[in-house]
Design brief:
The chain has 338 residues and is mainly α. It is 53% helix and 7% strand. The protein contains 13 helices and five strands. It has a three-stranded parallel β-sheet. A two-stranded parallel sheet has the order 4-5. It is globular and about 75 Å long. The mean pLDDT is 96. Bound molecules: adenosine-5'-triphosphate (ATP) and L-tryptophanamide. L-tryptophanamide (LTN) binds next to strand 1 and helix 7.
């Protein structure tokens, strides 16, 4: 039997993280957080704020600290509940960094430098191509492998990192004997890649400097509808999913993910209607979904003590689980212990 966020041996383990930068966007929500919320009760669930990962890009310390706390409140507002899940800050559980070091010694520079995200982020932050940026997926592998995760719910952009995680787990198991569970990704059918509202060929990213490109789960209704009204669409007038219509296709994906309808149903619903009407309908649907989240967020963010309590409790529980794996790993690789 499970009570609260204790582990139940009958249930599989899901784990995922999110970097505290900006605020949670529609892309993060549909690609990841909504699934965390839907799955949390059926699994042993572990979710964390990936603050160590976020350090791979330069941050202003005071702002960064506040953003991380805001993210914690946003996860709670999205319905991620301490009743169902262990929720914590990655940096509060030192085992993440410790396992990452051991995995580093089993990761080839060649494979890490081939990661698409590393190449993209190196180009974007050419003045700060630091070791952490290249090491990012190894730390992510440590996050996942520490907890014997079965499933990792993420957006499609993380697929390559999950494949590396699997490779590292298999390699370690072959070299040192069965140690890690080899995890699977859980990538949603609809919503795995939400695109920018200003450039529908690029993914929506919370670090996009163009405010009009994203919507946040805590934006108000007027802002959300305005962003959708301004969304870049394609030539023609038909509302349908087509390769040469990335703008409208993206809006259809968003609407179908929010309304839980297939793309074909959405196409039928808007047959004969114009782009303008459709954009407003999508904006209103998104705003309606986010309204209660925004309200809950206001409630949680004004209660720092509650956040601190949940985060501390989560970190303690996570550390106990993580230490079991780490101890095993240290023994396997031949580190001494007395
Ligand atoms: P940043 O812009 O800071 O790199 P990000 O928006 O890509 O951030 P992450 O913290 O890297 O967000 O990702 C959190 C989760 O959201 C991951 O599971 C990721 O796959 C998912 N995700 C991110 N962007 C999208 C998107 N546009 N569509 C669907 N899922 C997404
Ligand atoms: N790299 C992820 C965030 C992340 C993560 C994880 C996701 C860090 N550690 C472990 C799943 C499992 C991202 O979304 N950019």
């Amino acid at each position: 039997m499970t009570t609260g966020n204790t582990q139940n041996a009958q249930k599989k383990i899901i784990l995922s993280g999110i970097q505290p930068t900006g605020t949670i966007t529609l892309g993060n929500y549909l690609g990841a957080v909504q699934n965390w919320q839907r799955m949390q009760a059926d699994f042993n669930s572990i979710f964390f704020i990936a603050d160590l990962h976020a350090l791979t890009v330069r941050r202003e310390p005071a702002e960064f600290r506040q953003t991380a706390i805001n993210f914690f409140a946003q996860l709670l507002a999205c319905g991620i509940s301490p009743e169902n899940a262990i929720i914590y800050f990655q940096s509060h559980v030192r085992q993440h960094a410790e396992l990452a070091w051991i995995l580093n010694c089993n990761t080839y520079v060649g494979e890490a430098s081939r990661m698409t995200q590393f190449k993209d982020k190196s180009a974007k932050h050419a003045d700060n191509v630091n070791m952490g940026l290249m090491d990012y997926p190894v730390l992510m592998a440590a996050d996942i492998l520490l907890f014997n995760s079965d499933l990792v719910p993420v957006g499609i952009d993380q697929k390559q990192h999950l494949e590396l995680t699997r490779d590292l787990a298999i390699r370690f198991n072959n070299r040192y004997g069965e140690t890690f569970k080899v995890p699977d990704g859980y990538i949603p059918k609809t919503g795995a890649k939400i695109c920018s509202l200003q450039d529908p060929t690029a993914k929506m990213s919370k670090s996009d400097p163009d405010q009009n490109a994203t919507v946040s789960i805590i934006d108000d209704e007027a802002t959300i509808v305005r962003r959708f009204k301004r969304a870049v669409t394609d030539s023609g007038a038909e509302i349908c999913v087509r390769e040469d219509k990335p703008g409208i296709s993206n809006l259809i994906t968003i609407y179908s993910a929010i309304e839980n309808k297939s793309a074909a149903e959405v196409e039928r619903e808007f047959e004969g209607k114009g782009y303008g009407d459709f954009k407003i309908a999508v904006g209103e649907a998104v705003a309606a979904r986010f309204k209660p989240i925004r309200e809950e967020y206001a409630r949680y963010i004004s209660d720092k003590e509650y956040i601190a309590k949940i985060a501390k409790d989560g970190a303690e529980k996570a550390a106990v689980l993580a230490e079991r794996t780490l101890r095993k790993v240290k023994k396997k690789v031949g580190l001494t212990s007395f």
